[in-house]
Amino acid sequence: MSEVIVRGKAAKAASYKMSGKTTAEKNEALAKIADQLLADKDYLISENAKDLEQGKKNGLPDSILDRIMLNEKRIEDMSAAIRLLIDLKDPVGESLETIEKENGLLIKKNRVPIGVIGMIYEARPNVTIDAATLSLKTGNAVILRGSSSASYSNQALVGSIHKALAQTSLPVDAVQLMEDTSRETAKELFHLNEYLDVLIPRGGKNLIDTVVRESTVPVLETGAGNCHIFIDESADYEMAENIVINGKTQRPSVCNAIESLLIHESWFAKNGTDLLAVLQGKGIELYGDETVCTAFSEAKQATEEDWATEYLALKLSVKIVKDVTEAVEHINQYGTNHSEAIITKNAENADIFLNGVDAAAVYHNASTRFTDGFEFGYGAEIGISTQKLHARGPMGLPALTSTKYFIYGQGQIRG
Amino acid sequence: MSEVIVRGKAAKAASYKMSGKTTAEKNEALAKIADQLLADKDYLISENAKDLEQGKKNGLPDSILDRIMLNEKRIEDMSAAIRLLIDLKDPVGESLETIEKENGLLIKKNRVPIGVIGMIYEARPNVTIDAATLSLKTGNAVILRGSSSASYSNQALVGSIHKALAQTSLPVDAVQLMEDTSRETAKELFHLNEYLDVLIPRGGKNLIDTVVRESTVPVLETGAGNCHIFIDESADYEMAENIVINGKTQRPSVCNAIESLLIHESWFAKNGTDLLAVLQGKGIELYGDETVCTAFSEAKQATEEDWATEYLALKLSVKIVKDVTEAVEHINQYGTNHSEAIITKNAENADIFLNGVDAAAVYHNASTRFTDGFEFGYGAEIGISTQKLHARGPMGLPALTSTKYFIYGQGQIRG
């Protein structure tokens, strides 16, 4: 049996045990993991050093090495995040619907764990802890498949988790880490429908696209954000400037930052060059359509590719449109269904935009940067779903649950 | 461009128009379709006759020919079902969550259409009408891919739908029927992630398995039911007998009928042969384990395959277990996560069973035959989901919707 099958079977068996665990039992286990990480700090850092050394030898860029790196502060942060998770409400057991039938049948639709979660991610050891603890909190088992460039770190972290679980009533097998991190085992996970209930990719666009395109296990797609702001004819200048600057510069590397600006032609004729000069002053490289480039010679000509690009950097494409309908059509053609905003005083145009744009989150007069589980008040975030089924937008703990109908009778049969 | 791509693009464009339609507009269109089917009755029957003639030539069995057959009564029933659908609550627009932030942001999570639904089904022309009208009611566009053996009927039915839609504000393109019903086009649909938001197979186990195994488009898995009843030590004899007879014989060909009976060894020692004699008297063929066959010589020896078989006929496998835990383990190994029942007076064992069995619907002292959208009071049924994500158990109209966050601000930016 391949490692994937062995771990799949073990995780499935553990998931049945997990589903019966109380909130108290799960929280106790999380507390033990938080403690164990602190107790194992030195060992974790020394194992992490092996990954860093290997990474340097392999010529990994500094940005990746920084993602892999564990130090005291980062381990303390992981431990603290687990403490916050303990305080969050356990969604399992919540009753979503109660139906009482005339024949006396009582039907309850309750939240239950999903079962076995597969997590495929890149060189970020913190995802190991994050994915494992979110899965345990929601009564699931998890199979972790990280990057080979963080193998020593991941093994050590899962070692700490296992040490902690062994002191609790939770099954140690509920957290499985793939040792073989080859492409072949990833592909095997894509088709492990028998044991995996869901597969969640966490990382860059390429990873996510590969999982979505190849996996027959149901996927929770998170991620890519080619987000737009549309400045309508009636938009207040100051509000527009503030929101665009916030959307583009407050944290350019994240998925809810904006990548493209659409401006109504009349508004542009009045305020366009002022706004573009301010943006350029903030260090933003501008890629414009013909109207933009004519009015503001320092903008570069945008190509077809620019409209579809998630720069994740201080770059912005700018296009002039004749009305809200053209803005909506452009966004539905080039967007990634993440977060989209309109700035306008016109309530009718706001409605056309919010209803017409096909995205997880649509904004009227606010920055797209708010699309975030913590900002929405969910307290923990599995990711931001850009798909339509199961969960859409920022996913809190309930996204890691399913439902089950419990039906209570006194001998009822169907007539 | 292949037919699949052409229809995918057209359906996607239509889905954007559909999402803005009001309940009144959608219901008006449904009423027009209900009328049009009655008006086109003669033409529909004459086109259907071509499928029947072709089917006879190709040697299709009578049971399939009966499924394909349209007569006045069946067309009137389809039309009447649409009238019932009109009366159901439109889930689109329902607000599921409202969050007011301290900074004044108002966040609403509302139900919206999914977008484009793909429906792959077998030789049942009624599914053409069912799938199209459920999709329209929920603001979606749909691509229908039926069986070649019902091609004339499906074309005629979709012709009626198009005639009706042309008199309304709804886009005619919202309902697309594949003309090419080859295996190749089905496979193309499995991977049409760019235009299809979900794929729903309706039909037998082979069809569903193929779609689940091959599709990278998210699937709503409906269907197969290898359902069990477990008679615990303390079960009332009469209640057990009634529920088992109802579960097996009331309608043996459906997914929520039972296929396998598990009996506690002590209960079996007391009541087993009485019950088996009654079941045999009802014309049920029994396949038992060794204990069963020894006690009741007319039972045939069950093979490993029997435990996993959905007979959909008057056949029942019977196994003796030593306790509720063995029953749960057996069901989790051989079941299909559909509907499972325990008959017991012991509340603790009921809890162990209901929580431990991994199924969409779990019953205490009632027949599994109740797993049904109409019985639950949902009024229409897309199918019964046996998967964990998005929807589980009987699916009403909300299963054909997604959600979207609408965020209303006054210039808020993230700090």
UniProtKB/TrEMBL annotation, chains A, B:
Catalysis: reaction(s): L-glutamate 5-semialdehyde + phosphate + NADP(+) = L-glutamyl 5-phosphate + NADPH + H(+)
UniProt-annotated location(s): Cytoplasm
EC number(s) reported in the record: 1.2.1.41
InterPro entries assigned: Ald_DH/histidinol_DH, Ald_DH_C, Ald_DH_N, Aldehyde_DH_dom, G-glutamylP_reductase_CS, Glu-5-SA_DH, GPR_dom
Coiled coil: none
PROSITE patterns: PROA
Swiss-Prot/TrEMBL keywords: Amino-acid biosynthesis, Cytoplasm, NADP, Oxidoreductase, Proline biosynthesis
GO MF terms, alphabetically ordered: glutamate-5-semialdehyde dehydrogenase activity; NADP binding
Principal subcellular localization: cytoplasm
Role according to the record: Catalyzes the NADPH-dependent reduction of L-glutamate 5-phosphate into L-glutamate 5-semialdehyde and phosphate. The product spontaneously undergoes cyclization to form 1-pyrroline-5-carboxylate.
NCBIfam families tied to this protein: PRK00197.1, proA
PANTHER family linked to this entry: DELTA-1-PYRROLINE-5-CARBOXYLATE SYNTHASE (PTHR11063:SF8), GLUTAMATE SEMIALDEHYDE DEHYDROGENASE (PTHR11063)
Protein name: Gamma-glutamyl phosphate reductase
Source species: Peribacillus asahii
Gene name as annotated: proA
